[in-house]
Amino acid sequence: MQPLTVALEPGLDVMKAPESVAQLGVRRPLLEELVLKSIHVMAPPTLVELASIMCLSYHVVDDVFRRLRSEQLTEVTGMVKNAPQIGLTSQGRSRALELLALNHYVGAAPVSLADYVEQTRRQSVRNLGVLPQDIHRAFSHLVLDELTRTKLGTALNSGASIFLYGPSGTGKTAIATAIPRVFSDNRVWIPYAVQMDGQIITVYDAHLHSKVDEPLPDDTDKRWVLCHRPTVLVGGELTFEMLELQLNPISKFYTAPVQMKANNGVLIIDDFGRQRLRPDELLNRWVVPLDRGIDFLTLAGGRKVEIPFELFVVFATNLDPAALADPAFLRRIQTKIKVGAVPPVRFHNIFRQVCEEWGMEYKRDMVDELVTIIQEIGEPLRACHPRDIVNQIRWSARYANREPVLDSDSVLAAVDAYFVSEDSDEDSSGPQAIEHN
């Protein structure tokens, strides 16, 4: 075996490629069907190309091909660089078309449900140990108090879930999306597809999963993709259907639900309570998964399949948690963190950081003036204000074709543009009696 060119975490074994059909853990008929469909679509591949597209070893594909050849479904049509070029007989083409009518899946061979369950449990977020230095590194770009950092570290060590709540603009989404940075150096194996009760469910999603782009040994099981721990973010677009297996009516194979794609990683439900499904529907759906770490998916025909629910769920909302969830559900979310207004000292620190990010000179007296204005209009200091005000100053400077400067005129203009005035009197000349939008 070649030496590893990518270092794996302790306990994360190299996935060795099976050398026989029996070692694959999936039914031979399913492999034969996949070979027939793949040959028909590729028209005509070599055995080497077929093994590559199916993510299997040459020996396994050759074994399946020989079986199909003996049944007069496949044949050798030539040689390409010493590799047999293969095709379908007329009988094989008819069979391939019948199979494609049932489902259009071609590509990587699936892993068995048993192998998926075992590997997902082995890679559980509950097995991770999070230390203070991990939290400080992950949230270094945010200005957080030590109590919040401690609560986040405690929640991540639980491997359970967390509820971030508080008024809008206080930084809940920024905190939620920074949580995966704690695991930024941690990798997991994610399968292209899983076989469940004879059906194929695709799991790996190139849009959601970040593949580790480093060479692996040749004898690695290529049905598994080495990825960073996944992060899945859903907001108001979340529907009940996204929590269930999704059967494409055209391709006729399943796509994994969002929680299955987020397994071994983080699932962020932003703006919880504003989804197209009612909060109680989601909460009732996930009472058992959050409590027992297992989920049940329903295949066509009503058959239930048990899969692991090994993910860290983050709920972020600006609504009252007590109005969204009953005590039984809130009990299953072990950590609740209220993210509220920031004190002036932290407001200054956030403002300084935003100015540095955009190359603007930070002026303490100007920020003091801004703090006074916001307090006079009865608004709490929110973590979003520094970035939003600086953006207003930058946009105004771009329009005037000049460098952005933090001065009294720019601050007053930004406040006037950012806040909504309750006074409709056209003679009103300042940000008095204005309300945050």
Summarize the structure.
The chain is α/β, with parallel strands linked by helices and 437 residues long. The protein is 39% helix and 17% strand. A 5-stranded mixed sheet has the order 3-6-7-11-10. The chain has a 5-stranded parallel sheet with strand order 9-12-15-4-16.
Protein model, in words:
By secondary structure, this protein is an alpha/beta fold. It has 3 domains: 27-108, Winged helix-like DNA-binding domain superfamily/Winged helix DNA-binding domain (Arc Repressor Mutant, subunit A, Orthogonal Bundle); 119-338, Rossmann fold, CATH 3.40.50.300; 344-435, no CATH class. The chain has helices at 21-24, 28-42, 47-53, 58-70, 90-102, 113-122, 132-138, 146-158, 172-178, 258-261, 279-292, 321-324, 327-332, 344-358, 364-376, 385-399, 408-418; strands at residues 74-80, 83-88, 111-112, 161-165, 187-191, 193-196, 199-202, 224-228, 231-234, 246-247, 254-255, 266-269, 294-298, 304-308, 312-317, 335-338, 420-421, 434-435. A 5-stranded mixed sheet has the order 3-6-7-11-10. Strands 9-12-15-4-16 form a 5-stranded parallel sheet. The protein has a two-stranded antiparallel sheet with strand order 1-2. Strand 13 (294-298) and strand 14 (304-308) form a beta hairpin. Helix 2 (28-42) crosses helix 5 (90-102). The model is unreliable at 1-5 and 427-437 (pLDDT under 50).
